[in-house]
Amino acid sequence: MPRSTAKNTSGTPSSESNLTLGQAVGSYLSALTQEERTSMGSDINNFVRWYGADRPIRSITPPDLERYQEQMLAESMAGVTGRLEALRAFLTEAKRQHWTDTNLAVNVKLKRKKGVRRSKSTSDSSDNDALRLTPEGFRKLQEELVFLETDMRHQIANELRTAAADKDFRENAPYDVAKNHQGEVEARIRELKRILETGQVVRDTGPAHLIDMGSKVTLRDLSEDEEIVYTIVGPGEIDPRKGKISVQSPVGRALAGRTVGDEVAVEVPAGIVRFRVEKVEDR
């Protein structure tokens, strides 16, 4: 990853505590070369959309970064390390510019996972397997597809027209960002169409005492002696802030088919976490 020196060109002093993540990223990207913006912009903006462009950059916490990495591993195993390198480079510069109080980059783990054991029920899964969706998840994916094909395409078209008014494309950061955004949106549209065409809508997930998609599970973190509540969901319903995690995530996979009293060890970006199942609520 190229080493770049970003300048605070956002018009907002870097020492201000109300600097938003979107403003910080805009300042960072504008100081990169066109080649760097092209290679790194989409990966950084993926985190911006996940966390929220209007939220203060100083509000980002290490647990936020851990949840983001866990979701990336759950949804797209390919290319995760490269995407995280771009985010780590941005967070390193954010500390140098005093946009953050600590170097959050240390919480972005780039090491490759080796020798991770997976159960037989999940180890043979592939991209050709049909994703399991709840009716609610299927509906949300349909709504997202409609939004992207209508409102978002229209918005990006306007952004491109505005940016194209500047005839000098050599250093046209807004145009590059808009083109990258367009590529991401079109890729997401293709992915949504594939999921909706091949996904399996599951209405009855089986015995209520066994953990499956739709289960609300109370876990005991055996290392921290803390109680955690997760709801296991399919694509379209993932919301780590509300405890809704993917059935395909490391935690979701480890819990599948388990019941009260079972203990599981899960490898997540932060390391190995051990849980005991305390409660499985009826679906």
Question: Which key features would you list for this structure?
Answer:
single chain, 283 residues, alpha/beta, Helix Hairpins, Chitinase A, domain 3, 3 domains, 5-stranded mixed sheet, two-stranded parallel ribbon, 8 helices, 13% strand, disordered N terminus
Give your account of this protein's structure.
The protein is of the alpha/beta class. It folds into three domains: 21-112; 135-201, Orthogonal Bundle (Helix Hairpins), CATH 1.10.287.180; 216-281, Chitinase A, domain 3 (Roll), CATH 3.10.50.30. It has helices at 21-30, 34-51, 62-75, 80-96, 120-123, 135-164, 173-198, 250-255; strands at 132-133, 200-201, 216-221, 226-233, 244-246, 263-268, 271-281. A hairpin with a 2-residue loop joins strand 6 (263-268) and strand 7. Helix 1 packs antiparallel against helix 2, helix 2 (34-51) packs across helix 4 (80-96) and helix 6 packs antiparallel against helix 7 (173-198). The protein is flat.
Secondary structure elements and pairings:
Layout lengths: L20 H10 L3 H18 L10 H14 L4 H17 L23 H4 L8 E2 L1 H30 L8 H26 L1 E2 L14 E6 L4 E8 L10 E3 L3 H6 L7 E6 L2 E11 L2
Parallel strand pairs: 1-2, 4-5
Antiparallel strand pairs: 3-4, 3-7, 6-7
Outline:
The chain is of the alpha/beta class.
Tell me the span between the first and last alpha carbons: 46 Å
The largest β sheet comes out as:
5 strands, mixed
Average the pLDDT over all residues and give the rounded result. 76
Instruction: Catalogue the unreliable spans.
Output: 1-15, 111-129
Widest sheet: strand order?
5-4-3-7-6
Shape: flat
How many domain modules? 3
Helix content: 40-55%
